[in-house]
Amino acid sequence: MMKKALLTGVVSSALISGCASSGPDSAIAYKSDAPAAKRSLEVPPDLSAPQQQDRYPLPVVNSNGNSTAPADVALNNKVAANVVVSADQKAKAQIERAGSQRWISVEGKSPAQVWPLLKAFWQDNGFVIQTEEPDVGLMETDWAENRAKLGRDPVRNLLENIGLGSVLSTPERDRFRIRVEQSATGTDVFFTHRGMYEIYINEAKDATRWQPRPADPELEAVFLSRFLVRLGVDEATVAQNARKLEASANPVASSKVRSEGGDIILADSFERSWRRVGLALERQGLAIVDRDRSMGVYFVSPVQDEALKATENSSGGILSSLAFWQDKEKAAEPLREQLRIELKPADAEQTRISIRNSQGTPLSAKQLQALQQKLLNELQ
């Protein structure tokens, strides 16, 4: 919600006079809109832990558009958020990069070993885990607000201290989709950002609507670096490697990825192409619902959640940007069926990417061209 008028001038003056200034703000300090699982104190064996609940529980809408009670969300967040990596568990991991795309390669660790660390990591960073499917390596956070963008002043400090901090809010929300995959040497970890921005929809400024904003690769990079530290990599090493990646990140020439005969040809090995295409699909609003790396196939469908529903009837809203396969000259229902994205090595250094419908047949020329262009732009 937009920043609200908080208090009258007299009360505000009293608050200001009663508060001391705080130190420098942290660049990132997220807090989820959904209620998080509370960390309770250890209770002696002969006593029962007191029951706690939110006074005004709100339903949570997952990525499939279904509502779940806060209790279900809390149940989904029972993994301890203060998981610590011991010295003998520290992983050999690094961030890899191709253009604006980044991911973590963890050597010698299976997805099952990395999963609880990931869950604890996002909880410690202020996010609620909304959905998780460890069997297929998919996790998604709820929408959360970067409270650090509010800044610090005496009024906010006092409101936070007395439990009224939520009356101040930014017009932005973020969520992340997390994907883990078994690789030849261990596990690959991918973070994909999605953002929303609240705007006024009339001159009176008494009604607002959420609309999408572009994915933020740099924010993804920040959390990838933080997760490296959680894996046990020294902070100085992480910072040094980040500088090296930035220094070596040259724009990829357009000849490295091109359209050819209805397919996309990416000048990269199959292993790297597999990682890059997965990230490109998720950044374009397509959820990976299944995959078969041995066959080189992704099964994807358009992401559907409460943010999409809020704007699907508006001109130029999120569905119009994500449903780029729609015919703009006539009304069309958003695509609901799955797409099949096939990757095959063209040679040792090139990969052919084909786009098919769920039955494996080609898309119409207009649909194919629109989707190809989106992927070409993302893979530059």
TrEMBL record:
PROSITE patterns from the UniProt entry: PROKAR_LIPOPROTEIN
Signal peptide coordinates: 1-22
Coiled-coil intervals: none
Pfam families: Lipoprotein_18
Listed Gene3D superfamilies: Outer membrane protein assembly factor BamC
KW DNA-binding (keyword) present: no
Keyword flag Signal: yes
Domain of life of the organism encoding this protein: Bacteria
Keyword tags: Signal
Protein name: Beta-barrel assembly machine subunit BamC
Organism in which the protein naturally occurs: Vogesella indigofera (Pseudomonas indigofera)
